Amino acid sequence: MDVIVGGGVVGLSVAWRLAREGRPVTVIDPAPGSGASHAAAGMLAPVSEVTYTEAPLLRLGVASLRRWPAFAAELAADAGLGTTGLEAGGQESPEHAVGLRLAPGAPPGRGLDLRADGTLDVAFGADDLAALEELAAFMDKLGLPVERLTGRECRRLEPMLAPSVRGGLLAPDDAWVNPRRVTAALLTALERRGVPLVRARATGLLHEDGAVVGVRLEPGGEVRGERVVLAAGAWSGGLADVPVRPVKGQIMRLRSPQPLLSRCVRGAVHGSSVYLVPRGDGELVVGATQEEMGFDTKVTAGGLYELLRDARELVPGVTELEVADVVAGLRPGTPDNLPVIGPSGTPGLVYATGHHRGGVLLAPLTTAILLGEESELAALCAPGRFRDLS
Amino acid sequence: MDVIVGGGVVGLSVAWRLAREGRPVTVIDPAPGSGASHAAAGMLAPVSEVTYTEAPLLRLGVASLRRWPAFAAELAADAGLGTTGLEAGGQESPEHAVGLRLAPGAPPGRGLDLRADGTLDVAFGADDLAALEELAAFMDKLGLPVERLTGRECRRLEPMLAPSVRGGLLAPDDAWVNPRRVTAALLTALERRGVPLVRARATGLLHEDGAVVGVRLEPGGEVRGERVVLAAGAWSGGLADVPVRPVKGQIMRLRSPQPLLSRCVRGAVHGSSVYLVPRGDGELVVGATQEEMGFDTKVTAGGLYELLRDARELVPGVTELEVADVVAGLRPGTPDNLPVIGPSGTPGLVYATGHHRGGVLLAPLTTAILLGEESELAALCAPGRFRDLS
């Protein structure tokens, strides 16, 4: 049996794929879906994320985004959902190179709320515009599909954008999904497959003869298995010798009677980056702070202030919206911003952690790596790379 | 029997005083203590409030503040609380002209959390400073005890104030209380006296032969009495012909491990006024917006943004604090900003409403007016003044 430690979007996805393969699995989590997956905005945006990262992560992101439509379709079917919001694209649609296509007539806000209308990255000042231009050149070199837009063209796409927006980049292939619906669907799918869910905290690994053979639980007891998959996100570093640290993110959900935006919008304001993700049900997600604060998950006055200030700057109309929800989550950060996926080096222990800001995007790829379907990309995520450092 | 419509701080205070006088009373409210009293900061600050109002309201406020210590002491005794946080001042203490004295050794945060350490009104720019100087001259003329302070003196009193504070006015007699503890104590005191509380919404008044004889309830039924006291706050205008309108206020509670302030601080920032009220239990209340939005009680992105922006400007250290609570309440506003207290003109109907921003401060005076103890001040609040207008 495989013991999956962690019931976030990564752990649940791994459990679900393994269960579909006919393997016996058990999931351990005191409160499934309540960690970083609960806070996450759900951007599936490897292209616009290029701003903040390097080529290896882009490769992982693009590969995982291509897997999302099939992943979503299978998950929706397994969970008994009527629709995913998207059909899995058998052939490439001309406007969306990664093959996501909106299902004709699929009502927004149903299913997983998976949407593929692209990300618009906007610039305010001349400096921002120059940085965006450089980024566009870099993306061209990588062969990524992006379109340069003037301020007027940005506002034609998104009329609620601030008049001071000077220009933008459209990444038409970027998509997004509602992570809370994904974890709910995964839990339903697992339940329908009879996968046991142990609602307890794993406090340590059980070692026998140099191998990991299970986990200890709080307040007592243990679960044993042939293999332990550590998918405990920011808490992974407390259970095994893996360099994962918590990176705090505060994120806000606004409620909009009319949708203010038709796609994800992001921008740099006063040097800090903010993004706005519209949901089919009228929710508008505003994220997110990035703070090195250890395991602190307090929503602070300063965090809220930054989000509100930057969101207002980007889309002034947000001031009228109701504040529905504010939470802080802990991303599992790694030294090189790449996830840690695969055999740990200790027999019986496998890692599926360190996804930082990309757990939702990278969940399908993570399952594929663990099932041996992506050997080349698996090398980028191999846990062994950190052993060389120490 | 008296039927009190409204279980906020005013309605409950009236019911409690009447019950203490031996009168049979019944209180009607679907959710006592959940309206404006739940949102209120609890400033008992008639002097610093002079900024925003006129002489009649100042007279009411000062008279009611003088009643607060005895009111609090009796309430604490009746509710079985150990301490009010203050002793009722039998003689005037030299530094607090209204006679509030901190009980020696009274632990902060217990009882009603009544404190009398004054309000500090601060100015940022030269214009603010000039306005504060004018206000000080006006207060001198009224004989109100205020002290002019330099920026350095302000920071000596409150070291967490922003370095850009240029000067201030200290109103040493101003006090504050925790309104949620006051309504809780009132509910306990009423329960101990056996006063019935009907948890239902009053939807209309019962009229017979030109007199009010009770109220109709939702979902059905009625309560009859010799006298109906309308203390329904912002909802009063829907039940009787009294010119009360809702004035929305959004207010935030922050949680502070160490107290940032030792007294109430207020200031004008970018032309909008903000105040910070420290509680004994480490809570820091930041208030409040004033919005004419009808019966809307949504917490909005814009409201939160204003509060956070202005609080940061006044006390930069708030950014580190946890956001514990954000609510919107509806103040009962009147055309002249004075409350409406006394016989309505219709037999059987008495008003105790329209307290706008001053319900907590004016509760003791309101009960005194209704019990015939304050005939001169009663004239200022007489409902008849609006009949002359129409």
UniProtKB/TrEMBL annotation, chains A, B:
InterPro entries in the cross-refs: FAD-dep_OxRdtase (IPR006076), FAD/NAD-bd_sf (IPR036188)
Organism domain of life: Bacteria
Pfam families (UniProt xref): DAO
Keyword match Oxidoreductase: yes
Gene3D superfamilies in UniProt: D-Amino Acid Oxidase, subunit A, domain 2, FAD/NAD(P)-binding domain
Molecular function per GO: oxidoreductase activity
Domain FAD dependent oxidoreductase: start-end pairs: 3-366
Assigned keywords, A-Z: Oxidoreductase
GO cellular component, one term: cytoplasm
Tagged with keyword Oxidoreductase: yes
Protein name: Glycine oxidase ThiO
Phylogenetic classification of the source organism: Bacteria, Bacillati, Actinomycetota, Actinomycetes, Streptosporangiales
